[in-house]
Amino acid sequence: MAKEKQSFEDDLKRLQKIVEELSLGKLTLGESLKKYEEGIKLAQSCSSVLEEAQRKVELLMKKDGKYALGKLSEDIT
Amino acid sequence: MPPESKHIYTVSQITQEIETIFKNTFGLGIWVEGEVSNFRAAASGHFYFSLKDEKAILNAAMFSRVNREVKFKIEDGQKVICFGKIDVYGPRGQYQIIIEKIEPKGIGGRQLAFEQLKERLFKEGLFDPAHKKELPLMPFSLGIVTSETGAAIRDILGILKKGAPGVDVVIRSVRVQGEGAASEIASGIEELNEFSRQANLNAGGIPQNAGGKIDLIIVSRGGGSTEDLWAFNEEVVARAVYNSKVPIISAVGHQINTSLCDLVADIFVETPTAAAKIVVDKKNFLLAELANSRHELGMSISDIINSFKNEITRLKHSLKSPLDRLEEKEQFLDELSVALNNSARQLINITRERARSLIERLEALSPLAVLSRGYSLSVAVLDGAIVKDAARLKPKDKIKTILSKGAFISSVEEVIDG
Predict the structure, then answer these.
(1) Chain B residues close to A14, C-beta within 8 Å
(2) CB–CB of A57/B157 below 8 Å?
């Protein structure tokens, strides 16, 4: 999922471009269908990234100049 | 009239006396209220100015040792209340107040200091909208600077869990009030920035996992008195917020006055809950947008398909339909059959013509025609055969002789060989 989160903004931009291109209707039927398929896939993957329900809640600590992530001392998640 | 006894002081002695009198009278220190004028800060760090009212003026000195504690900037025209001791300065023949404490009059000292700091930071451009960073489209990784045990973190995590449960949270726990809180908050902001930057670097600029990178920082604490929230008004916090590379939401609870932290932050909200809701709203907005994109894609593609369909229909129209072709052929066939009829009739006529001439020729050949020229034809009565050879006859045979007109029957008398 991390990878998709990373490319989320790019994916979203690409999707917006496809929506725009397709709305102009200047492509061949074959190209249109290809773009449509790609657009739907992007929309799907972006949505599923957003709907992801797993999270990490960690505490940032600095020891000897190095950062480490630790658990919360009290479970409030 | 001057008294008779003539005690003559030296200038130094009388100055000394005056000093003693002042000391005895005001020795423990006094409070004086007045307006600042002629303020100047000497190179030594000492402050020199006058306190005045409508009728009098009092020189004042404040040594660097004490003026370091002053939280506000002393300016001409300011009404102040000072505590100090009256001192006589012999070399100039002047008396002055040596100030140990100074407070602005009317407005709380800290409040004034705050107003002045605010103005200074404003002039420096710390609140400049141009400096404000845009929040990320979707903060998948959230840094939070607050107390790990406070109400704020519970509020934020609760809202996120319900509304955006996929958002990772990195908490940099700090004290949010009391001595040292401000510098802890400031370094919390700095450390989250540094941590995020390192995570980016470790992944060679193109991080493969979002684990370390921080998309957005919330600086927060729950509601409290102005006193409780004061740390968020400190310059060190304002500067840390200003210098943050990661966008910051300031959510310093429930107070009417905005804190410096609020003013510098890219966005500020009133409560920790509201800060978390921004994240949830972003998620929901994007989901709605994505649904809309899908819808638009669907509309577009069916428009495209329909327009191709229409094009096909148009082309179909411009092509002959098979039925049209059949009719065309039928018409051709009709034309052909008319032509055929004509030809047939012609053929019949020709044939008829030929037949007529043949009949004429045939008639010319008819024996009857010969008879009309005076010839006759005999047939044996017995078998009806035409008599061509006399040898076939014998006397007494009956023969029928056909003439051009009528016939007669005769009996053979004698056969004469040919």
Answers:
(1) none
(2) yes
